[in-house]
Amino acid sequence: MLRITYRIIFIAAIISSFLFIQEVRAQTAPPASQNGGCTLNQDEFVKLAAVENDPTLGYLAELTQELQIRKELLSETMDCAIAQATALQTSLAAISTPDAGVKAARAQAENLLGNAITYYGLQKSNIPNLGIQGSKNFAASLEAWRAGNYAPVAKEASDILIWTGNQNLIVTAQTRMNQMGHTMGILDLAGESNLTALWSDAQANFKATLNFNDAARAALGNGGGPDEALGDIKLSLDALSVAYQKLSDMNNVITNSTSSAQSQ
Amino acid sequence: MDLDNIFKQLKSIEPDPAFKHKSLHLILHSAPAGKPTLREIIFKSVEFGAAIALAGVLIYTAVGGFSAPGSSPLQISNFNPASLKAEAQAVDMQIQLVNLSYDTGSIVGATSSAASTPSVASPASGLPVLESPVTAPSSPAATVTSSVSVDQALNALSQ
Fold this sequence. Notes:
Chain A is built from seven helices and no strands. Chain A is an all-alpha fold. The longest helix of chain A has 55 residues, at 132-186. In chain B, 25% of the residues are buried. At the A-B interface, helix 1, helix 2, helix 3, helix 5 and helix 7 of A face helix 3, helix 4 and helix 5 of B.
């Protein structure tokens, strides 16, 4: 009998060690990738307005300075657009996901971002030939192109990045939930009605997190569109936040119980 | 036959001499009750010690000690406010990141440890609401200077 008990304890210890290793792996997720580092300073646009409204400048001087500033700003803006698209593309290439649908969506987004970068480069080469009105038309045209062509791709790419980042959070939360369930059993806390209700809420919200997360993955994989995926991602994170709130409330109940027990 | 005669006959009953001899021999020559050998003692000690140690590991893990390195084993780390809060904050930051949503590339690296804080646009700029604050000491017109997005820049340049 004693020997059987030893063996059960030994097996339980091995399982616990395995869970510990899993937790360490979850907590050592890959570091965050960096932004493109692009900055369009508002001061430059203030300078443009200042030149346009400067009464001391003659007509020709004003046109010359305004055109120069506009071309510089357009060029900087194009550089920024290229830098951001490149950063998105690089971030997409860096993520790791086992899901085939998300992988396919990532490959498509990377390809479309590459096309956008090429388009930006071609457009930028036309800037030196622009006049003032031409530069205004150029900016308006590019803005419209981005809204119709680039924005959906950037949204899709952002959704993929956010969804992938969420997986680390969900793995950590799953570990937390597993530990909490184990502790509830070990310490026989199920008899505490407050804790039981909070624990049920936490479990329900975590389940909702997983369901919405799966829905987001499906939307990304089957081309459901960036808005659909983003909606599911938001719902998933909201449910996860509520689950953590319930766990925090459980912590408060435990802390208060412990404090009152110690004071007695 | 009366009972007295029966009892007298019972007194004279004896076991078979051969069986008596064999039984006596078995009792007198049986091995003494198991005295453990040195090897058995060592094995039992190691087994018992390992079981105690592993039970300790199990209890430590059960109360979540491994999820809060450096903390007391007596502390139930599942209810450790610091680690719980850190995880909850990571979720909240991710929500902020999602709420920033599409900024044509500002969401790069979804596991970013810090989301940018929205700032107040300079009223004099005439530009729409801006994002990531950038300090610009050379600006005399605004106390807070910000960067603008690509779309905001294009919109401003189209006018």
